[in-house]
Every structure is written in C-alpha cells, then in structure tokens.
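Example record used in the benchmark description.
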Amino acid sequence: MKSKQQEPSATIMGESRQQGSPVLIADSGSTKTDWCLCLNGQTIHRIQTQGINPYHQSEEAIAQVLNEELYPFIKNIKANTRVVFYGAGCANDTACTRVKKAIIECLGTADTTIHSDLLGAARALCGHEEGIACVLGTGSNSCLYNGKEIIANIPPLGYILGDEGSSAVLGRRLVGDCLKNQLPENVRDEFLNEYNLTQEIILEKVYRQPLANRFLASLTPFLSKHREVVEVHRLLTESFTDFFVRNVKQYRRPWLPIHFVGSIAHAFSAELKEAAENLGMEIGIIEQSPINRLVEYHS
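Model output (structure tokens):
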C-alpha cells in the first residue's frame, strides 16, 4: 500500500508555525494507519500507511513500514515532536515497546507514547465522559470507559477465537457459508468468480499464507454489495448480535449508549443498529475513523 500524501511536506514545519511543539497522532489497525501531524491545535499534514500490529509484525517489519511509507513525507520532523500512537495489538508492554523502538529509531522523537487502539477509540468517542466504546474494523474490541481510563474489557481473542463482527470474521463466515452451500448458488458462483477463488486457493490463503486476517477482511465489499440477499443479511445481523451478546452485554450498563469506530461499523451501520435494536440496546456515535476526534482530544 502506498502512502497517501494529502498536503505538501514543505509546509510541515514552516517558521510561521513554530509557536508550539508539534504532535504526531496515529490511529493504527491491522489494515491501515492514519497519521495526523498537528501544531497549535491545527492539522497540518495527513498520511496513510499500511497497518502496524506488533502482534503480527516484528520490530524490523514495523520499522520498514515507517521508513518506506511515513518518513519520506515527514523527514523534516523535529526532535521535540510528541508522538501519540494508538494501535491494534498494543495491549502489553512487550508489544508497545516494539512499536516505540521502531518509531524512535525512524523519527528520532524521544517523547513517544504507545496506547491500545481501544483507548484511542474510548478517548475519541467518549472524551471525558463514561461510555461504552467499540472498535469494528479488521478486528473487533470493546470496553467500558469511566472518562479517564478503561475499567473493563472483554478480551477480543482474535479472529479465530473471537473478534465477533469484525471484517476478518465476516470474511471467514462468508467463505465458510460459500463452501458449505449456505448461500444461493448464483451468489456463491459470483463470489468465487469475482475474487478468482477456489476451495483450494481459500484453504491455502487461510491456513498456509501469512496475514490470513487481511485476506478474509478483503472480502467484505462483496457482503456490502449483496446485503439485500436474505442469507447475507442474516450473516451480518447474526455476526453483530454475537458481538453485542458476547461482549457488550457483559459490561452491565444498559443505560449507556454504545459508540463505535471502524470501517465495518460505518459501512454496515444499518445492520448494526438493527441487531442492537433487537436486543434493546442503543447505538450512539458511529465514526469510520477516530483520528479527527483524537486530534480534538489532544488539542
């Protein structure tokens, strides 16, 4: 994936903007990372790179992404820039240290803090108020947030054991339903032809090739295109119902609205709301990405 440069790098650290210390904020999932460089509360540069997840990637692999896709666009970044990185897989000290070392080595920014993408979602969606914050993207996660910190979290467990409602699990369910004849024949054939797949290719990509979660997640556009098909609609609502029942219900806060960030929550908001309503739950904010709200939070 190539970086998406949205503003000229020459304006990053212009003399007229050196009134305060710049902040580089990152929101990273397994598929993509949104970077936003801010100065004096103003966004001055945005970049998108491929996803960074220390659970799946080594420090060397992370450093390669940073050096090839991020650094060329912010090579004039100053050493006093504060970096705040929110990322999938940043759930323990070992994982956070792996990302932090790679960032410091690439950018030379000593003031670098690493947090989970879940805390980023909670800060973006709830600010300083109590709430339930959820992530539905390549993976899924949820938490109960008290306005300062996460106080409860049902472990997501990844796309094999958990990650209900995520694009990886939706894709897994799609190929499973396809190969086990749970879809109408014409829909099944269209799916296999559109993605040039056979049973053998699917099994190879899932069980033998790396980053199977990305492969499975890449299939969700087909679900969006065929969401009116009864079997596809049922697949979606059942998957989101599983997410609510196996995760959100355990926080025992039925009076709190449930907020979401992530590409899946945004793309399938109608089915997500339908599943919630069937369970007597209330959906609050749905954002595709938390990056804009994180900029506001850190301003």
